[in-house]
Amino acid sequence: MNPEHITFDNVSRFYGEVLGINRVTLSIPPGITSLVGPNGSGKTTLLNLMTGLIRPTEGQVQVLGIEPRDPRKLFRVVGYSTQFDSFPRGATGRQFIYSFLRLFGYPSSKASSLTAEALDVVHLTDAADRKIAGYSKGMRQRVKLAQAIAHDPQVLVLDEPLNGLDPLVRAETLNLFRKFASQGRHVFVSTHILHEVDMISDQFILMSNGYVVAEGQIQDVRSEIREHPMQVTIRCKQPHALAAKVFEMDHVVEVRVHPDGSGVLVLTRAADQFYRRLNHLAMGDFGIESIAPADDTVKSVYEYLIGEESQR
Amino acid sequence: MIENTAKSELWGQLIAVIRIELSKTFFSRRSLWIYLLALLPATLFYVNSIYTRREHERLAKVAVDHPVPKALLRSMRRGLTVEQVVQTLGEPYRRNSREFWMGRPPQRHERLMYYYTDGETDFTFFFSDGILQGNGRSGPTQSLPQLLLVFASVYQLYFIRLAIFFGCAGIFTNLFRGEMLDKSLHFYLLTPVPRFILVAGKYVAGLSATAVIFSASTALQFYAMLRGFDSSTVHEYMQRDGWHHVAAYMGISMLACAAYGSIFLAAGLVAKNPAVIAALLLLWESVNAFIPGSLKLASVVFYLQSLCPIEAPPDVTIPPALLALVAPVERVGTFTGIAVMVTVSLVVLIVSGLMSRKLEINYSAD
């Protein structure tokens, strides 16, 4: 097992007779990893297994070579913001983070300074001395995030961290994730906001009914889905001429001219061959301005593999 | 060096857990009823002491105005007339009279009640048609030895079996189960605190809270009980047995918290509904008096009662048929009693520490 990866080796977890996850094998490198899937697909189970809040029925989990059953080592490197929207009674934001850090064994002064830093990162300094019970949903999300990052972990595990955040804070939070990942750390995000997953993820894991349906980089996964032709959008000045030319290719199954007449949408079963032929066409008189894949997004993959009806 | 660092880190974590838990147990609104439970007997003893003092003062004042020696009061015999009694004792400080009709044909009769006091006890003489029929004694007649017996009964039957029992149940079962229900236990499990340190820290915090509350209540009960007596009586008692009694009762309260606390902490750790375990334990502890001798040894209350410096008088409310079942068992010695309670607490705590390693966060199932 790679000591720099988060690894699941044939891991299953059952709740009595109910399946949590089944025979999951993963090796996740540093970077931002998004965990997507419908409700009840096993996302939270996977995160809880990774952080030792539950134990596997079978198999083995390791986080940077550490077994989750060893909290003394694990939580030196892992910070987890759970989906549970509950806090110790009567605690203020500052007390919550401070007492959490004291449990790490930090002396009072160090815990105080780390608390202040974490609250500053999530922009909660002004509200730090108010009781969490009076916080808005977004503020509670942020204080949980502050708790997860306060001890500067190598692995950040976040269960639906963007829920309840306003657009500005959401953008700042995504930037924070990017910053973490750029330092060679793991950011493991469970989310159902698929377009944001595309924006930030280095890799993703798609789960359904307790199984990992797909994992890896989005383009790689998309290219593996043969039954759905790849979609490519080409912006050009001569869409009709280009459509006729493209349609001559064997692997192209459909070509649609954009309603605004500024390009075409091509559906092909062999994207690599198509892009090679397109290089020749680009030198022709079609006035090609841009070429972009139209469906190598997590949302598309999600729809192809799981179906739109199951999407939240 | 590394070992020392690890040890000091564990100590730091233990202290951090204790601090967090102390603030929850001592100062939370949920603990309010436990304070009330603990203060109830102290309040009753206090009220009793106020009544006792007032009665003492009232009778002393009456005795100044109507001085009657105790020996004379006791020398009055049935059959004396009102006039003879008044001639010997003087005029009563209060009198009541009542008329009633009795017999065939109905005849008028008169019943008189004359009140005297020697300054300590109220004597009431009952006359029927002018002839002394008998007398009654009342007032703050509780002597200190009598009240110590009352204290022993209240302590063993109410304070240990109900106040400390339910107080510990309330505090210790909530240490884990309460946080499960609040869905906040996971915050502890997301830190590098080893589970056994978490169990130990929570136990120490719960024990500190209950030991302070209930041993302070024990001391307050003693204070409240004694304040009804004059200072010389109290001084003499404290010099003789008083301090030993206070220390013994406070120590027993702490031991009770330690033993019941460890059991309830374990119950909160393993049971979804620890109230069921508490109810079963209460039943077992309550029937302790009726179970065969060897089984008595398997109850906490037996050891605690063995340690009490004053044996509570037998419960006169137990029907004679049941009294036959009450198997008297030799009380264990002080050292044995303390050793058993400490050992039980430690064993249950160690088992809890081992069980906590299997603790999972699955709030939806709780």
Task: Tell me about this structure.
The complex is a heterodimer of chains A (312) and B (366). With 312 residues, chain A is an alpha/beta fold. Helix content of chain A is 35%, strand content 26%. Chain A has 11 helices and 13 strands. In chain A, strand 11 and strand 12 form a beta hairpin. The radius of gyration of chain A is 23 Å and the shape is elongated. With 366 residues, chain B is of the alpha+beta class. Chain B folds into 2 domains: 277 residues, no CATH class; 79 residues, 2-Layer Sandwich (Beta-lactamase Inhibitory Protein, Chain:B, domain 1), CATH 3.30.1450.10. Chain B is 66% helix and 10% strand. In chain B, a hairpin with a 2-residue loop joins strand 3 and strand 4. In chain B, helix 2 runs antiparallel to helix 5, helix 5 runs antiparallel to helix 9 and helix 7 runs antiparallel to helix 13. Chain B is elongated and about 90 Å long. The two termini of chain B are 43 Å apart. The model of chain B has no long low-confidence stretch (mean pLDDT 86).
Briefly characterize the structure.
The complex is a heterodimer of chains A (312) and B (366). Chain A is of the alpha/beta class and 312 residues long.
Could you tell me the CATH topology label of the largest domain in chain A. Rossmann fold
Measured by DSSP, the beta-strand proportion of chain A falls in 25-35%
CATH hierarchy, class of the largest domain in chain A: Alpha Beta
Number of DSSP-assigned strands of chain A: 13
H/E series of chain A: EEEHEHEHHHEHEHEEHEHEEHEH
Which term fits the overall shape of chain B?
elongated
The share of residues in extended strands of chain B comes to: 5-15%
Mean pLDDT figure of chain A: 87
The share of residues in helices of chain B is 55-70%
**SS element count, helices of chain A:** 11
* Tally of DSSP β-strands of chain B: 4
